[in-house]
Amino acid sequence: MTSQKNPLVTSLSAWIDAGNGLAGDMLLAALLDAGARLEAVVAAVEAVLPDTVRLELSEVRRAGLRAAKLDVVVLVEDQHHRHWSTIRSMLAGADLPEPVRASALAVFGALAAAEARAHGIDPEEVHFHEVGAWDSIADIVGVCAAVDDLGLAGLSCGTVALGSGTVRAAHGQIPVPVPAVLELATGWPVVAGGRGELTTPTGMALVSALATPRAELPAGVVRAVGVGAGTRDDPGRPNVVRVVLGEFTGGGPAAQAATLLAANVDDLDPRLWPGVLAALLEAGADDAWLTPILMKKGRPAHTLEVLCRPALAGPLGRLVYELVPTLGLRETPTTKRPLEREWRQLSVLGQPVRIKLGLAGGRIATATPEFEDVAAAARATGRPERAVMAAAEAAAAAAGLLPGARRPE
After folding, report:
1. Which are the contacts of 158, defined by CB distance < 8 A and separation ≥ 6?
2. In a domain? residue 376
3. How far is Cα 33 from Cα 18, in angstroms, rounded to an integer?
4. Is the domain of 243 the same as that of 285?
5. What is the pLDDT of residue 10?
6. Which of 1, 15, 97, 241 gets the highest tally of CB atoms within 10 A of its CB?
7. Are 148 and 103 in contact (CB under 8 A)?
């Protein structure tokens, strides 16, 4: 499936207000209320669960506030228990845009890791209970599709209200926050926030895998607000999640948690390296690269390094072991400060070429023609790639897409 972004909403970041709790259906409803297209979400969910569920969006009131309510109507007999490997295969085989697939795998990977730690088992042995239900799969895939449809440059979340008391689950009566939520909340600002289960494992997995902590609404220009409702209507507490879309540029790029994986390899056919790097990037790595090194006895080798979201460290680490003959992998927590990104498409020699912009403080920091588009234009016109690249750079300059220029309207 080719990702067709919403043409009305571009170059935005989103901040999630989870001060009243968080669940997958609430977050999805808020993203739809903020401008994500229902048809894009339905198409992604249908690709994973064909003829299985129907999404119904309505308007409700929660403690006097208007909110969107999403209901996942199951059309077939549900199955509440599924292994992580089964869900991974479903996502891998579905016709999804690659960013949606990678994000959904990251969310379920985070859930599997949390459940494994909570129960003291290997992630591959995890079988989901409530999270394995059709509606939870639809919520996760739907949120990932909505984020992709909005073309968000970043996603952050404020303090998360987890709740208190107890709740009945597959393993019986357990305390709130439930073990998986506490595992997923490591490193996040949280509060109890009230009685009952306010944040579900699905909701916490979505923000831990896709967002970064940001206690307050960042400075910038608000462009849209979405409000998503939970099932209960508590008179004293609005059972809603809010999503604020905006051009948030104040304070420079925010620090984001990241993990750096590294392995030394001295016995891989060099012709295989491009495929290794491509596979890691397709699986969701933020970046992957090689550094030539000399090992003991003067043997030439390479260090493979992979930068990724913490939730993807486990799945990408396993992929490294599948792709290269290494006996060990180093894992280092780190941070990154990515610039806000935006695409502008220009006509170069009669061919479409996208220009990738890096934005900081409302100005262009970098403007680079997308090489895949340049290569395609070179093939279409029969001109050398170097000549097409030069033409693309000249077209970008003529359009005012230059470092230091103000962000284009």
Report:
1. 15, 16, 17, 18, 19, 189, 213, 214, 215, 216, 217
2. yes
3. 16
4. no
5. 44
6. 241
7. yes
Plot region of 86 (φ>0 → left; ψ -120 to 50 → alpha; else → beta): alpha
Tell the residue number behind the tokens 């085989």, with chain if given: 93
The answer to whether residue 319 scores a pLDDT higher than 90 is: yes
Domain count, the chain: 3
| Structural domain includes residue 357 | yes
Residue 8 pLDDT more than 60?
no
Q: Is the pTM of this model over 0.70?
A: no
Is 61 in contact with 235 (CB distance < 8 Å)?
no
Could you tell me if 180 and 266 lie in one domain? Answer: no
pLDDT the model gives residue 254: 63
- Round to whole Å and give the CA distance between 344 and 196: 47
Token pair for residue 146? 């909505």
164 sits in which H/E element:
strand 163-169
Strand order in the sheet with 300-308: 287-294, 300-308, 256-265, 330-336
Q: Which 3 state secondary structure label does DSSP give 377?
A: helix
Length of the chain (residues): 409
List pLDDT tens digits, range 107-127.
988 888 888 887 777 666 666
Q: What is the pLDDT of residues 339-360, one digit of tens each?
A: 878 889 999 999 999 999 988 7
The encoded tokens of residue 150 equal: 């909005």
Count other C-beta atoms under 10 Å from residue 304's C-beta. Answer: 24
Q: What distance lies between CA 207 and its chain's CA centroid?
A: 9
- Cα–Cα distances (Å) from 348 to 301, 368, 400, 402, in that order, read 40, 14, 15, 16
Domain that includes residue 284, residue range: 256-336
φ, ψ of residue 244 to 5 degrees: the values are -110, 120
Give residue-wise pLDDT tens across range 209-220.
888 888 889 888
Of 207, 230, 247, at which residue does a domain stop? 247
- Calculate the alpha carbon distances from 174 to 21, 167, 177, 199 in Å: 18, 6, 9, 14
Contact 231, 31 (CB under 8 A): no
Alpha-carbon distance 27 to 48, whole Å? 19
Whether 27 maps to a domain, the answer reads yes
Helix, coil or strand: residue 113: helix
